[in-house]
Amino acid sequence: GAGVSQSPSNKVTEKGKDVELRCDPISGHTALYWYRQSLGQGLEFLIYFQGNSAPDKSGLPSDRFSAERTGGSVSTLTIQRTQQEDSAVYLCASSSTGTLYEQYFGPGTRLTVT
Amino acid sequence: QKEVEQNSGPLSVPEGAIASLNCTYSDRGSQSFFWYRQYSGKSPELIMFIYSNGDKEDGRFTAQLNKASQYVSLLIRDSQPSDSATYLCAVLNRLNDYKLSFGAGTTVTVRA
Question: Hey, is the C-beta of B88 within 8 angstroms of any chain A C-beta?
Answer without folding.
Answer: yes
